[in-house]
Each structure stands twice: as C-alpha cells, then as structure tokens.
Write a structure and sequence with these properties.
seven-stranded antiparallel beta sheet, 19% strand, flat, alpha/beta, 724 residues, seven-stranded mixed beta sheet, 30 strands
Length: 724
C-alpha cells in the first residue's frame, strides 16, 4: 500500500499558489481568498508573472524564487502547463501539491491520458503527495489551511473531528454545507479528483491514523484502487474507527454517468455492498444520512446498542415512526412498567408506549410536564438512544413541543437527536432553536433513521469482534500440485474442470466430498456401486455437457447392480443423442446423500475485488430465486454466520417447520477453505459452481455433491482485485 506522507498537505506551514490571479472568483484566485478568509497563519506565496500582489500577499515569478520552500503548492494552470510546474516543484523540494485543472484522464482523450500519465510518473518518481488532477483541493478547517479552489463554502464555519473525502467536488461541498447546517463539526475535506497521485485509500489511511479524527465520511462513484481500499478499511476496523460511505453509480444509468464523470471502474453492486459490510463500513443512501451518521459518531462515539426510545407527537406519527424504525432493523422495546406508571401520573391522558405519544393535555399548563415525562422516558434502562420526532406546528404549540424536546435532549446523558419534518417559515423557530442549542436535528427523518441503523450496526460489529474458523490450509505440496494440473489443463485449451477432478482438488483443502468412482463400462459401474454402497447416483462426465438438466444424463436412487448397469447404458445413449461427437470422459458413480436442504456455494471473479465467495439457496431454484450473498476471502465463521443471516431464505437454515438448523461450523468448513482455494488458484480459475450442497438429516453434515470449475483462458490477464 502507498505510504505517502500527507502531513504537508493538511498541516502546511507555507503554501504557494502557482498561476495566482487577481480576478475574484477564478480557480486561480479562490485558494488565496480562502486562505485569507479562514485566517491561515503560515506563509502564503502567490506565483504570478503578471501581478505584484495577490490578495495582499507579495507575488513571485516562480517557486524557484521563493525565500523558503513551501510544504504545499496549489497548481492553478491549464492542463498542458502542469507538468512543467510539477518539475519546478520537484526542483524546489516541495513535497505536496494540488492540481486544480481538468483536461486529464477524465476526458478519455489520448492527450488527456498522456498528460495524466506524465504527471503520475513525475509524482511517483519523486514520492510526491499529489492531490488531483481535476480537483478543488483540500482543507484543514481546524487550522485555517483552506486552499480550496471554490467559493462554495458556508458563511458560518465550525471545525471538528469529522473528515470528508469525496471523488466529486460538488458532492463534497454538498456534504460539507449540509454538515455545517446541521451543526456537525468538520475538520477536514479532501476532494480526490482523478486520484492520479493520492488515492481515496491514502486519504482514509491518513485520517484513520489521525487521533483528531473520530469519523470519516466518504463519497465515491467507483473504486479505482480496491486492494488498497481494503487495506485501509481493515486498518480502520482494527482501530475501531468508523467509515461511513455513500456511493453513486448503483443503477445502469448511474454507472454510465460515473464512468463519464470519473473514468473509474465499477464492480457489481451486490459484491460492493457485501464488501463494505464485511469490512465494517457503514453504507448509507443519502447525503443527509451520511451527515447524520457523522454527527452521531462525532458526538456519541460507538453505539452501545440498537434499542431506540422514540418520542412522537401524536398517534399517527407514532405509527409512522414505529414502521420506519422497525423496517430499519432497530429495536423499539416498550418502557418499563415503572416508567409507564410515572409518566401516566404526570400525563393522565396517555398510556405511554414506544413510540411514546404524549397526548396534548400538557399544552394548557406549559411545557414542564412534558419535559418531566420525556426525562422519565429517556432515563429508562430499556433504551440506548433517544429519538425525538418533531412535525410542523405553529405559534405557542410549536414552542411548547420543541422547547420541551430541546430541554429533554440537553438533560439526558444518552445519545439523542431530533427527527424534524421542516416546513419553511412554519418551522423556522424550531430549526434555529435546535441549532443554537447544539442539538443534532435532522431534516428528513428517514435519513436519520438510516443513519441510526448504521451507527448501531457498527457498534454491534465492534462488540462482537471476529472469530476464526479452525480449518487448516492445504499442504504446500497439494497446492503446488493443483496449480500444475490447472496450468496444464489451460495450456491444452481446457475450459472447465469436471466434477470428479474439481472435487478431488477441493478435498485437498479439506472440503467434504462424497465417495465416488469414475467408470467407463457398465461392469465397472456395477463394481463401483457395490464398493460404495447403495443407493448411488450415476452422472455423465463430459466437457460438452457441463449442465445436465433436461439431458437425462443423471439418474438418482440406483439401488441394485441391474439398475446401475441399465443407467450406465441409458445415460451414455442419451448423451450421444444430445451432442454429436460427444467427448466422453466417463460416468461418475457416487453415493447418494439424503437431503434435508439444498444450498449453493460458488466463486466468481469480481473485476474489482477478485475471487468472491457466494452462498445461496441451491438446487434448481438458484437462478430463479437469485437469493445469493457475497464475501471476499479470507473468511471466518463470523462472516459465514452473517452470510447465512442475510439470505432471504435464511430462516430455512435456522430450522423451519420442524427441520433441524444447519450447523454453521459445518457451513464454515466449506466456505472458509473454498475462499482460500479460490485465492490460491485465482490465476487459473474464473468461476466455481458447487450446486447443490446437500445438508444431510440433522443439519450437522454438508456434502458437495456436484462441482464445476470454469478455467481462465490461457492468455487471460490475472484478475485479483489489486490496484492498478
């Protein structure tokens, strides 16, 4: 992983702006205007051949003429002039720079790509911390080092312990402005642009290690450096530092737009979702959910639980909130009986539940009774977090409700926030009041609920930690032998590895396979069946018929010598009728497993993350139902448990209508080594299909009764999910 030093970028003592202009509002002026506005205390050097001063600072014709070496240079020149400016920075010894200009790789033109490669080479050869190109830059709001090339900044600023990383400038500033409006303190902003030098994982790595940062908010359209991203995410997970992600390009139209915008590669959405969850990254679907999650981690740290106490103004709102919180996977336990009795003694017209509808009796007596009731509700030990919903109202009613909510939120020691449906002037008082009193108040309650869910899920993952499945790796001699066999198969033009060979390779990694024999005559088939023990299954082995459905080339439940001999001849005849010139590699005689449930497992090679393990409900329904979940190896038993829980048909694995639950360790003894095998053989195998996995009676044993590998073409490049 890149170990670029980003300290000069975020904590410079001196900054140069190359191409500085006196024209207000231009990209070449705004970095200097922002440094002045935010009170940067270091030295500032405009570089201009036309002006003597810019924004009050003396200008110099070149960085080579400066009285000291800046830590950071902002290059605000046309794209074709950037390589020359970079070389001057290298000669001067400047360690970090931001390239504002567009016109590079994002254009998709040969000239743009040539220029981008040129500046990439200069940066790499000199270990430069290069932000961009095609970026608005970076900012440290805590120290006033704000060299951002935009005026799109809020009037009221508040530093803090939140760091924002965005591929897009427009989206980055949307997040920043929404955060400041909500009272969430942002200390750092990085607009990554084309990531030619510093990548999003580099920024993550830097902020993960910064003790002044509590939470990282990240927006991206597609992932350019997947392996590096996973390293940074793993570091964040090990340190317990939350990363909250919003990504775009999740629809076909969005993917096309993302490609046009960033020139980046986007992997499968289901795989991306699984990877983010696997690495403990909170994923949300809106800017407001992103900001709210950042505010919760910043103010309250890691969640202690997912039990939410919800206050709702009115019965209808209570029903709505109950639905929305429950749908988000949050728990709404009722208040303790003592809490109910105490609240009822204060507000006789309500029978408090959760959500808690306070009724309206207190409106005639002032807000004290409601505050006391809310205090009692928040103090209940059944709740880890308190959410107060506030809907539009006017006049004294608005003040009574909202002042009571604010007072209760200030007085509770539990994490708390306000979910507000704003309505212009009708809610102007409450908006300003919540903000002035430092209460996290979120417009769009749905976004807030999504954020609470992600916040709680992260806390749960931190508390659970990880457990490693005790499945030994294959011996080195076995790994080397399998690689040699696969290499030879590919060299000879093979496209698949058929069932028996595939299962023998998996068995070397400890995966459970049934007893079976490959035979070439009816007599051999009968002898093999007798040795294995009845009943048996007979299956065709041919690279020309890898999927046997509808071909009558598999027979089940064979319980005698005569039945086996007849099945051999029937299968062979059916196969020859199905495919002219069939390549016959034998018939597999296999012990027949009793089935309690059929599952599917496999591996696909994702264009970003490489080998990816799949689990689903199996048999003939795997494609029709499409109930499949993903993880990137290496796996552990905790991940296997999570995969099983995510399946829509996951109840089937827990025991359904009297059937036994599927033993998770037995499932792990397949999926964990399957992931290891896929990683070890990623140079040779494009896909693995284990369908079905037979869960045997009792649920304690699982057997791989069918297997198929799809080989990589001999000349195909290796897809490992590593950074390009």
């Amino acid at each position: 992983m890149s170990k670029l030093n980003l300290e000069p970028l975020f904590h410079p003592k001196a900054i140069a702006v190359i191409g500085a202009s006196t024209t207000i509002g231009r990209f070449s002026n705004t970095p200097l205007a922002n440094l002045r506005r935010f009170g940067f205390g270091g030295s500032v050097y405009p570089i201009s051949t036309r002006a003597e001063k810019v924004e009050g600072w003396k200008a110099f014709p070149s960085v080579l003429d400066l009285p000291e070496t800046p830590d950071h240079a902002v290059i605000a020149l046309r794209s074709e002039l950037v390589p020359g400016a970079l070389k001057d920075c290298v000669q001067r010894g400047i360690p970090a720079m931001t390239v504002v200009a567009s016109g590079f790789g994002e254009t998709g033109t040969p000239e743009g790509e040539r220029l981008q490669e040129e500046i990439r080479s200069i940066a790499a050869a000199n270990s430069l911390a290069l932000c961009g190109p095609n970026t608005l830059g970076v900012a440290n709001f805590n120290e006033g080092s704000v060299s951002i090339a935009t005026t799109n900044l809020p009037e009221v600023m508040k530093g803090g312990d939140v760091a924002i990383i965005s591929q897009s400038g427009g989206c980055g500033f949307t997040i920043l402005n929404r955060a400041w409006y909500a009272g969430v303190g942002v200390g750092y902003l990085a607009v990554a642009g084309n990531e030619t030098g510093i990548t999003i994982p580099d920024y993550i790595d830097h902020f993960v290690r910064d003790p002044a940062v509590k939470v990282i908010l990240c927006y991206f359209e597609a992932m350019r450096h997947p392996a590096q991203f996973l390293e940074s995410a793993a570091l964040a997970r090990s340190l317990g530092k939350p990363i909250v992600v919003m990504r775009a390009g999740v629809t076909e139209v969005g993917l096309r737009a993302a490609a046009a915008h960033t020139g980046a590669l986007a992997g499968g959405n289901k795989v991306m979702d699984a990877v983010l969850q696997q690495y403990g990254i909170v994923q949300v679907n809106s800017f407001d959910a992103l900001v709210t999650a950042g505010g919760m981690f910043s103010r309250f740290g890691v969640a202690k639980g997912r039990r939410v106490g919800v206050y709702a103004q009115g019965g209808g709102m209570a029903v709505v909130m109950a639905d929305k919180f429950t749908a988000a996977g949050l728990e709404l336990p009722p208040p303790a009986e003592t809490t109910r009795q105490q609240i009822h003694a204060l507000l006789s017209d309500t029978s408090p539940g959760n959500p808690f509808d306070s009724g309206g009796q207190f409106l005639s007596t002032g807000h004290d009774l409601l505050v006391q009731a809310l205090d009692l509700f928040a103090a209940d030990d059944n709740y880890d977090v308190i959410a107060y919903s506030a809907f539009p109202s006017t006049g004294e009613r608005e003040r009574t409700y909202c002042d009571s909510i604010a007072t209760a939120a200030e007085r509770t020691s539990k994490p708390s926030l306000v979910l507000q449906y704003r309505a212009g002037s009708m809610t102007r008082y409450s908006e300003e009041m919540f903000r002035s009193r430092g209460i996290l108040a979120v417009d769009h309650p749905e976004a807030a609920i999504e954020a609470i869910s992600g916040w709680a899920e992260f806390g749960e993952q931190v508390r659970q930690g990880g457990r490693t499945a005790t499945v030994p790796a294959a011996p080195k001699a076995a790994r080397d032998g399998i690689r040699q066999r696969l290499t030879e198969m590919r060299r000879q033009g093979g496209k698949v590895v058929l069932e028996h060979d595939a299962k023998q390779m998996l068995a070397a990694y400890g995966l459970p396979v049934p007893r079976e024999r490959v035979v070439h005559t009816a007599a051999e088939a009968a002898r093999a069946a007798a040795e294995i023990g009845y009943p048996v299954v007979a299956k065709l082995l041919s690279p020309d018929l890898t999927h046997r459905a509808g071909t009558r080339t598999i027979e089940l439940g064979l319980s005698s010598q005569a039945a086996v001999s007849r099945a051999f001849r029937s299968i062979l005849n059916n196969a020859k009728r199905s495919v002219r010139g069939l390549r016959f590699e034998g018939i597999l005689i296999q012990e027949q497993a009793q089935s309690e449930l059929e599952l599917f497992a496999g591996v696909q090679v994702d264009p970003l993350f490489g080998p990816t393990v799949m689990l689903g409900i199996g048999g003939i329904f795997v494609e029709a139902v499409n109930d499949v979940v993903f993880r990137v190896p290496p796996l552990d038993i905790g991940m296997v448990n999570a995969m099983a829980a995510e399946l829509k048909g996951g109840r089937l694995l827990d025991g359904y209508r009297g059937t036994p639950a599927v033993d998770r360790r037995a499932l792990a003894e397949i999926l964990v080594p399957l992931g290891t095998f896929a990683q070890d053989m990623r140079d040779h195998i494009d896909a693995i299909d284990l369908n079905p996995l037979i869960v045997q009676p009792g649920g304690k044993a699982i057997s791989i009764v069918d297997a198929l590998f799809v080989l990589r073409p001999a000349a195909a490049p290796i897809s490992t999910g590593k950074s390009s």
